[in-house]
Design a protein that fits this description.
By secondary structure, this protein is of the alpha+beta class. It folds into seven domains: 124 residues, no CATH class; 104 residues, Beta-Lactamase (2-Layer Sandwich), CATH 3.30.450.20; 92 residues, Beta-Lactamase (2-Layer Sandwich), CATH 3.30.450; 186 residues, Heat Shock Protein 90 (2-Layer Sandwich), CATH 3.30.565.10; 139 residues, 3-Layer(aba) Sandwich (Rossmann fold); 133 residues; 70 residues, no CATH class. Helix content is 56%, strand content 16%. Strand 9 and strand 10 form a beta hairpin. The longest helix has 84 residues. About 3% of the residues have low confidence.
């Protein structure tokens, strides 16, 4: 049966409408779903960028505000003066004015002075995140988490506070990001829920459960998202259920500002159920419209078929274009029926999508603006970096100037002392006083060097200078220097070295020696009696190739340290156990510098200590073995037999000065005392010495035609300094040597002199050995042989004419001295005293002289007992007791101990009865000691000549060479004593040179010279 045309139209129209409706439904649903979720993801990315930028802007604003606050004079002065009340008031005002959640001010050690957000103070926060960087002088900021802090989770800025270049404290300001107020603020700005996670647990959130409680403390259960954010550091945007409701979420890592460690997650979330319902409504509308169109067309398909077909086709084409992404094409269809409603709905949907796209573009523009602002801030940071570099250069200049200004007066003090010590006619008391001045001066120089070392460490300018070094020589030098610190203490020193220790290693030997010196210095300082032991070995565990670990341990039986003291042993200026009767020299910088040097070498240091039981310091420093040669048993035994010797100290001034009457020098210095010192030290050379008090005066002398063998030019002078003066003199064509006299000890100064016309330099205070090298090099060695021979013969004849009756009487001197000492002094055990000092009479006499001076001072104090100053009396009697035990005056020491015990118990009757007896007995003993010293000095002055010889026996030189190569200290001493039995004519200089280098334990240098001279002879 054939269908009618109307039925065909109805069937065709219905089929067309059904097909068109299905197409529109499918395409519309798919497009709507895709655009919907794409729009939501874009919204989340934009909001994530906005929140992340807000966090960054908060951090930048905190840093800028902190930098402004630390420049406020009132605030800086309050911190500098430690005015706690003013600091507290200022911090409260800062918190109120800037609306910060926390404001904290600490001192330079990290101890809280005041908080603006709390009355709590006095706690040590130096170990907290980012605080360490601020204490080292760096401004730091970022997200901060510390469970022990009053505000654990915050954005903070830490900024060091300076007063005239001195670091005095740290200012910390911050915003609490884990507070309800903060998360609600983000929620209000973004219209999204905001959460902060610590790990995978919500720390703070703006999300409430069905009971109206915030869901802080709940965990993020999606393990895949947690892994991507916390472990991979990714930004994750997607759909997630929160409290059973579907949300679009964005999560990204919370990075702790101090160490770039991921500690949690930022989370923004937007419920999308409402949007899903809206999207479903649109799809349902499309579906119902399609059904309605099919019903209507089925009823009136006859005459509406053609009319309906045209708009359906247009809608179909439009939907296809929209599905392809073309949202700007027009849809020109006029219809008031269901098709028209469908078209209106589609146009509304497309218009909404276009509005969302425009909003996204606006957000992108804001992000670009924020990027530009970030770039501007980075340029500002670069400008501040340049400013900091200029400040560092200014600091280096200050160190150089400070070094010069301090060392210039020290040059006068030590130089004049050195001159006086060369005077053999000094009395024993006067010589002891000058030695005390000399030792105190060098102690002050050591303190200055420690401060300069610490300054270079803080500025990051201290550099290592690795090279090959001789291990045995380094160890013996260190031991020789430090055993002099024993003085009159009852201390035994032990040096133990493993046989497999390499002979030569590669590293910064000078800095390692500095580390050993600091450790041994502390051991001797804080040990009154007992043993100081140094153990040295190497370990190749976990090492490859030539790498080894240099292991050294220094132990003592001294005062030890408490647990609290151990925690701050490496802090700057740390000193312990300082009591009135036991003063300890030093600044407390030694261990801080030691720790920094060990860290610079990638080494480690450990400390074990107990009060009154002693301490053990152990260091492990990576080094390289050079060659395969090891010290071996013989060398180790020789090092182990090391014994203390004071001869290096006592012979400090015994340099062989070769007269140079042909010499002509000019000293240029604006300080009269410096000129006096230089002339005094040069006097033994018997040369012509001229001087000038400023640079222009020196230039005038050169203009007048004066020519000098050497010009000694001071560095720092008014009007025209030494460098400028030297430049003028060189420009005049003057070519003779110019030597810099400099008190500047900062690294880089030497090269500066050599690059500005100087030939060499001498450091102030002037070392006579260094000066002697300069004189020999630039004055003596440029003379023709006939001039030197003439001068030598003249000097020999002059010495022979002075005394032609010299004979060997050393044995007579020794016998007379021993005879005098055999006449026992009542109350003094001379035998035990000599045994303690290994039979060294000179050392024992020096101790007795020091004992006499010290005890006389204390006796003057206790002659009259003041009952109101009983504590001071106890201290003085305690000192007398210790000094008497040191020289084995045991009876007198026992009496002093009884008086000390009486002072402790307050027994005034016993003190009144027995004090005068102690004073009388001690005075009588001191008079006998002084008389003995005077008699011995008289014998020495009457018998001070030796028999003459032309040259040193070759046999003795060969023995000396062998002993030096084996590091046999006792053997070297015995051979040197045999050499000094005679006065030499031809080998006078060699004899003096050998004594000087034996005292300094320069055994390698001695061996090299003896070998070279032997090769020249053969």
């Amino acid at each position: 049966m054939k269908l009618s045309i109307s039925k065909k139209i109805i069937i065709i129209a219905v089929a067309g409408v059904v097909a068109s409706s299905l197409i529109i439904l499918l395409l519309g649903s798919n497009m709507t779903s895709r655009l919907f979720y794409s729009s939501l993801e874009n919204d989340m990315r934009a909001m994530q960028a906005l929140v992340a930028n807000m966090v960054d802007e908060e951090e930048i604003m905190l840093k800028q505000t902190a930098r402004i606050l630390i420049t406020l004079p009132q605030f800086v002065d309050a911190v500098y003066e430690n005015d706690i009340e003013s600091i507290a008031e200022i911090t409260r005002n800062i918190k109120k004015e800037f609306e910060y959640d926390l404001v904290t001010v600490t001192d330079s050690g990290g101890v809280v002075l005041a908080r603006g957000h709390s009355d709590r103070s006095g706690d040590d926060i130096s170990k907290r995140p980012m605080m360490a960087r601020a204490l080292s002088g760096e401004t730091s900021s970022g997200v901060y988490y510390d469970a022990t802090a009053e505000v654990p989770f915050s954005i903070r800025a830490f900024s060091p506070i300076y007063k005239d270049g001195e670091f005095i404290g740290v200012l910390s300001i911050g915003t609490n990001v884990a507070s309800d107020a903060y998360v609600d603020q983000i929620h209000n700005i973004t219209n999204m829920n905001f959460s902060i996670f610590y790990g995978d647990t919500r720390y703070a959130t703006s999300i409430f459960d069905e009971n109206g409680n915030r869901i802080a403390g709940t965990r993020k259960e999606n393990a895949q998202i947690v892994d991507r954010v916390l472990n991979r550091g990714e930004l994750v945007i997607g759909r997630s259920e929160i409290l059973g409701e579907l949300n679009m979420v964005a999560l990204w890592p919370v990075i702790e500002g101090d160490n770039n460690r991921i500690i949690g997650m930022w989370d923004i979330a937007m419920p999308i159920s409402e949007h899903v319902y809206r999207m479903n409504d649109v799809i349902m509308i499309i579906t119902f419209i399609s059904l309605g169109i099919m019903i209507v067309i089925a009823l009136i398909a006859g005459w509406l078929g053609n009319k309906i077909a045209r708009p359906v086709r247009k809608v179909t084409v439009y939907a296809t274009q929209v599905a392809a992404g073309n949202l700007d094409i027009p849809l020109d269809v006029r219809s008031k029926d269901e098709v028209g409603l469908l078209i209106t709905a589609i146009q509304t949907m497309i218009s909404t999508l276009k509005d969302r796209i425009l909003e996204t573009e606006a957000l992108n523009e804001r992000v670009l603006h924020d990027v530009a602002e970030t770039k501007r801030l980075m340029e500002e940071v670069e400008r501040q970096r340049v400013t900091a570099e200029k400040a560092n250069k200014a600091k280096s200049y200050f160190l150089s100037t400070m070094s010069h200004e301090i060392r210039t007066p020290m040059n006068a003090v030590l130089g004049i002392t050195e001159i006086q010590l060369m005077n053999e006619s000094l009395s024993l008391d006067t010589r002891v006083d000058f030695e005390r001045i000399y030792n105190a001066g060098y102690l002050l120089l050591g303190i200055i060097n420690d401060i300069l070392d610490l300054s270079k460490i803080e500025a990051g300018k201290l550099e290592l200078s690795p090279a090959n070094y001789d291990v045995a020589s380094m160890l013996s030098d260190t031991a020789q220097l430090n055993v002099l610190r024993i003085g009159s203490k009852l201390i035994e020193f032990e040096l133990s070295v493993e046989e497999n220790t390499p002979v030569t290693m590669f590293g910064d030997g000078l800095r390692i020696k500095q580390i050993f010196n600091n450790l041994l210095s502390n051991a001797f300082k804080y040990t009154d009696r007992g043993t100081v032991k140094m153990t040295v070995s190497v370990s190749d565990d976990s090492c490859t190739g030539d790498d080894v670990i240099f292991v050294a341990s220094v132990s003592d039986t001294g005062r030890g340290m408490t647990k609290e003291q151990l925690e701050c042993i490496f802090d700057d200026y740390a000193r312990f156990n300082i009591v009135s009767e036991q003063s300890v020299e030093g600044t407390g910088l030694g261990m801080s510098i030691t720790n920094n040097l060990i860290n610079l070498m990638n080494g480690k240091i450990s400390v074990e200590s107990e009060p009154d039981k002693g301490s053990i310091f152990t260091i492990r420093i990576p080094q390289k073995r050079v060659g395969t040669e090891e010290l071996g048993k013989e060398m180790v035994d020789n090092l182990r037999m090391f014994r203390a010797s004071n001869r290096a100290l006592m012979r400090r001034a015994q340099v062989v000065f070769e007269p140079m009457p042909y010499g002509n020098v000019l000293i240029v210095d604006d300080v009269d005392s410096n000129v006096y010192v230089a002339k005094g030290l040069m006097a033994p050379y018997e040369m012509n010495i001229d001087s000038a008090d400023r640079g222009m005066a020196a230039i005038d002398k050169i203009k007048n035609g004066n020519v000098y063998d050497v010009i000694f030019m001071d560095h720092m002078m008014p009007e025209m300094d030494g460098i400028e003066t030297t430049k003028h003199i060189r420009d005049m064509g003057y070519t003779e040597p110019i030597i810099a006299l400099t008190a500047s000890a900062v690294a880089g100064q030497v090269d500066m002199f050599l690059n500005n016309g100087f030939d060499d330099y001498i450091s102030k205070p002037i070392d006579i050995r260094q000066m002697n090298v300069i004189m020999n090099k630039y004055v003596r060695d440029k003379q023709p042989p006939e001039v030197l021979e003439t001068v030598r013969r003249f000097i020999e004849n002059e010495e022979k004419n002075k005394d032609l009756t010299k004979s060997r009487i050393n044995d007579v001197i020794s016998d007379k001295i021993i005879s005098l000492m055999d006449n026992k002094i009542a109350g003094l055990d001379i035998t035990c005293g000599l045994e303690r000092y290994y039979g060294d009479i000179e050392a024992y006499l020096r101790v007795l002289n020091s004992y006499s001076l010290a005890v006389r001072d204390m006796l003057e104090y206790i002659k009259v007992v003041d009952t109101e100053k009983l504590a001071d009396y106890k201290i003085k009697v305690h000192g007398i007791k210790g000094a008497c035990y040191d020289v084995f005056a045991d009876n007198l020491a026992d009496n002093a101990k009884k008086l000390e015990d009486a002072a402790v118990s307050g027994d005034l009757e016993y003190i009144s009865t027995h004090n005068s007896h102690l004073v009388e007995s001690a005075t009588e003993l001191l008079d006998e000691i002084d008389s003995l010293i005077v008699q011995i000095n008289s014998v020495k002055s009457e018998n001070n000549t030796k028999p003459e010889k032309d040259k040193i026996d070759d046999k003795l030189l060969v023995q000396m060479l062998a002993a030096c190569k084996e590091f046999n200290m006792n053997g070297v001493d015995m051979i040197m004593t045999q050499i000094e039995d005679y006065e030499y004519t031809s080998d006078k200089e060699l004899s003096g040179w050998l004594r000087e280098n034996v005292d300094l334990i320069n055994f390698k240098k001695i061996a090299d010279r003896i070998t070279n001279e032997h090769e020249q002879k053969t």
